[in-house]
Amino acid sequence: TDVGYYNAAVKIKSILVSLVTSLGNVLLPRMSYYAKERKKREFMDTMGMALNFTMLMSIPLAVYFCMFSTESIRFLAGGGYEGAIRAMEIITVSIVPIGVTGVLGIQVLTPLNKEKQLVYSVVAGAVADLILNIIFIPKMGAAGASLGTLVAEFVVLIVQIMYLKDLFFKIAKQVQYWKVLVALVLANIISIKCSGFVDMVFLKLVVAGISFFGIYGTILLLTKEKFVQNYVVDGILKKS
């Protein structure tokens, strides 16, 4: 039963992870070229863009699907899967560290020929996951497995940050966190109020999704968030 609950939560997480890490496959050749040609400034700029994109995508997705985990499970898995709701709420948060490690591991460590350090981080996460699963699963079932996965992903992230601390903290400062936070708070409040008038599960998800991500994007535009302004607004204006 718990395996079924866990699989239902993981399927949703996997879809979200593919969205968050989509930029990595596109940027890897460029990052490798900059590293090979020793173009440090271009390498840092691209790394900053990738990290900014990842944070702007992963955090709102995690928040939205945590807030509307009940409706998401009922729509995607059907009735009888209420036991997967807590597991989904926990494991959905893991898309944030997974997204960041996608940038640090695939887009930075690999082009810098530090595959060994990448392997060390993954091994550390696997060991942590194994130990935590032994502890949490007997007590918490599917939610325990999700908690073990979440902590393991943060272990991978911490190890990678240790290897790249000089680069990471320089780039991380470029993310305008307060703008993201304001956008998330307003989007969350408005989406809950808008969806509160709808009873049908699918329609509630649609209304909540449109209002949440609509408000989130609008706030980022109005506050001229760096990534949105430089790569979205300016990009559209240049093409026009």
Written account of the structure:
The protein has 240 residues and is mainly α. The chain is built from twelve helices and no strands. α1 (2-20) packs parallel to α5, α2 (22-36) runs antiparallel to α3 (40-67) and α5 (85-92) packs parallel to α8 (142-163). The protein starts with a helix and ends with a helix.
Q: CA-to-CA gap between the ends?
A: 54 Å
How do the SSEs run, as a string of H and E?
A: HHHHHHHHHHHH
The total count of helices amounts to: 12
Strand fraction equals: under 5%
**Share of helix among residues?**
over 70%
Shape: flat
Give the C-alpha Rg. 19 Å
**Class computed from helices, strands and strand pairing:** mainly alpha
List unreliable stretches of 5+ residues. none
Main sheet record? none
The counted number of beta strands is: 0
What is the arithmetic mean of pLDDT?
89
Tags for this entry?
flat, 12 helices, 240 residues, single chain, mainly alpha
Mind sketching the topology for me?
Layout: H1 2-20, H2 22-36, H3 40-67, H4 69-76, H5 85-92, H6 95-109, H7 115-140, H8 142-163, H9 165-172, H10 177-195, H11 201-222, H12 226-239
Helix pairs in contact: 1-3, 1-5, 1-8, 2-3, 2-6, 3-5, 3-6, 4-11, 5-8, 6-8, 7-8, 10-11
